[in-house]
Amino acid sequence: MKLVVVSAGLSSPSATRLLADRLTAATLEHARAEAEVVEVRELATEIAQHLVTGFPPARLAAALDAVAAADGLIAVTPVFAGSYSGLFKSFFDLIDKDALTGKPVLIGATGGTARHSLVTEHAMRPLFAHLRALVVPTAVYAASEDWGEDGLAARIARAGGELARFMAPGGQGTGPAGAPDTDTAAAIAPRSLTGAITSVDPDGGFDVVPFARKLAALRVE
If 0-12 CB within 10 Å is exposed, 13-18 middle and 19+ buried, where does residue 195 land? Predict the structure, then answer.
């Protein structure tokens, strides 16, 4: 299997790359995979050229192809103005619209304060949902004061285990013995804009009930 790690840190070394490396190590504890790191900072000029000309230079094209071919993806960004960085967004703007469909993705972010801890939920998760990726339930945000704390280490370990589970062949939504993991599967399943997921069947499918039907049932009651 192939695990691709996209790190959008702007310095070297960076807290963003450190978080990306720890998430990678946590994932590889549970999955036999080859890891490849894409440092977006090193592709900044190529990204700008592609946005202007519509043609990716060879190094950028190789990075985009690696993301598209990955069995799992880790994406980590520093926080800028309460959201992901512009460089991070520019890179994923260049990904083919179908490249991440159904691909398990672990998202992470770093910042100077815990006040930005919801960036993974209000910015990153919607971005990857738009790209139709399967974002694992546990996202990891690391503020400056979090490094060295047990809470961060526990979140990293949990997130890495979730990504490894969904990368495994036939492992999307399955537990250790191959039984459906309904809690995790329901947590990352694509949400319908017109219905609500109410159950997960043994074959891994989802029962979606239209909101109109649910409202009608409530009125009857």
Answer: middle
Co-location of 120 and 219 in the same domain: no
Q: Based on the domain organization, do 56 and 147 belong to the same domain?
A: yes
- The answer on 200 and 145 residing in a single domain is no
- Given a cut of 80, whether residue 212 has pLDDT beyond it is no
Q: How high does pLDDT run on average in the chain?
A: 84
CATH number at residue 173: 3.40.50.360
Three-class secondary structure of residue 40 per DSSP: helix
How far is Cα of residue 179 from the mean position of the Cα atoms in its chain? 24
| Nearest C-alpha neighbor of 171 from the set 69, 66, 31 | 31
Paired sense of beta strands 206-210 and 195-200, if any: antiparallel
pLDDT of residue 198: 39
Res. 218 pLDDT band, cuts 50 70 90: low
Q: Which residues contact 81 (CB under 8 A, 6 or more apart)?
A: none
Q: Whole domain around residue 66: which residue ranges?
A: 2-181
Looking at the predicted structure, is the pLDDT value of residue 62 above 90? Answer: yes
**Residue count (the chain):** 221
The 10s digit of each residue's pLDDT in 160-190 is 999 999 998 766 544 443 443 444 444 444 4
C-alpha count within 13 angstroms, C-beta hemisphere, residue 16? 26
**Which pTM does this prediction carry?**
0.77
| 186: in domain | no
> Are 132 and 56 members of one domain?
yes
Within a domain: 107: yes
Number of domains in the chain: 2
